Amino acid sequence: MLFLQIVLLSNLALAQLSNKLNSSLRFETIKQLSVMINDLYVNPDMATKMANQLTINLQNGKYDTIDNFGQFGRVLTDDLFQIAHDRHLRIYYDPTRVSTLKKLEKFSEEEKRQVWLKDNEDKSKTNFGFKEIKILPGNIGYLCLTTMEKVDIAGETASAAMNFLSNSDFIIIDLRNNNGGWSSIVQYLASFFYKESDDILFFQQHYRKNNEVVQFRSLPYIQGKRMEKTPLYILISKNTISAAENFAYSLQKLGRAVVVGEKSSFGAHGTGGPRIMNDYYMIQLPISENINPITKTNWEESGVDPDIHTESKDALNKSIEIILDKIFEKNNDEQFINTLGYSLVQDGKIELAIYTFLKNTNLYPQSANAYDSLGEAYMKAGNKELAIENYEKSLKLNPNNPSGKDALNQLKNTE
Asked: If I label 238, which of 83, 247, 249, 313 is the partner at 20 to 30 A Cα–Cα?
């Protein structure tokens, strides 16, 4: 046994020095990969299929000509995907990360705390994924969130962001380019949209090992004002991943949010972070699956299906249009709508301003001012034909409008 260990270690050292794979390392990598999949992968039947196929591939010589570490990891990932279709399952070459994690295991609690603080500091440079937050015209709160960081790291920033939005009449959370992350922040953010006395089961995670089930319910305490009555819209796309999908799926199925955009397609499994395979490879291994209390299933393979389908690039404007219609239902005063339209112009949202001014001309077809505003918006959009048409309508209703005359002359003289 000692001799065999020395031979294997020699092979590992030789591979490291040459920066090329050899047959022994390929064999040991697949052996370890098969063990980990069989022990931990969320679906035991699928785990057996994947491990068996790896053995067949190895015996058939599929990997014999691969001597590049990175390529081997990519090929193994692709082979497993062909069986499980699981985007969370990935093997990648990263000996530096392996070495760092092994050293971390031997650190004292104080040393680990210092690493945590450094990690926290690094992630703060991207504001923990809270990329953009603002109040749009119409008192619409908007949050662009690009990652789902752990709540113990990002909780303070999350609270500040949600409190900033808390006086909005409507809220849009943009997850179109969110790369996923951790369930704890999903639970925390979702809790802002329920009352303190609510006890809502958002989702639960089922772990294959020990058949463990962990529930994620609405929290009785959060650092901020709750928005249980504020209408919520969530934007998603093909680039919405994992925990971000979970946020959209959970609140959609509870009837708490309207999801707008393109269907997502990443997956509903949880990995708990990367794991060491050997001195060269890390593995992202799905060990749990999300189960929704309403559907009794999840979005694995099927994706999160929006309530309102539109191209990703149009999802924000589409959501605002829907919200504007709701605003107009409550307040259809001509001056209010006109002012809102100009707020959208100032915010650079010309298409939405046109949408708003058009609403005003439909509601008030005898208003010269409504057509004048619409003509101005079309002019800013570069649509001379429609700008001229609406200025002419305005002047027909009110010939004594010098600014309208000047704008119309300018448009006609530049044709």
From this structure: 83
> Residue 81: is it exposed, middle or buried by C-beta count within 10 angstroms (0-12/13-18/19+)?
middle
Ranges for all domains in the chain classified under CATH 3.90.226.10 = 110-315
d(CA 356, CA 316): 15
110-315: CATH superfamily = 2-enoyl-CoA Hydratase; Chain A, domain 1 (3.90.226.10)
Listed in order, the ranges of the chain carrying CATH 1.25.40.10 are 331-413
Per-residue pLDDT of the chain (415 residues; tens, 9 = 90+): 333 333 344 444 444 445 688 999 999 999 999 999 999 999 999 999 999 999 999 999 999 999 999 999 999 999 999 999 999 999 999 999 899 888 887 777 777 677 666 776 777 889 999 999 999 999 999 999 999 999 999 999 999 999 999 999 999 999 999 999 999 999 999 999 999 999 999 999 999 988 899 999 999 999 999 999 999 999 999 999 999 999 999 999 999 999 999 999 999 999 988 899 999 999 999 999 999 999 999 999 999 999 999 999 999 999 999 999 999 999 999 999 999 999 999 999 999 999 999 999 999 999 999 999 999 999 999 999 999 999 999 999 999 888 888 888 888 887 5
CB 342 within 8 A of CB 354: no
Provide the β-strand partners of residue 284: 90
H or E element that contains 309: strand 308-309
pTM of the model: 0.90
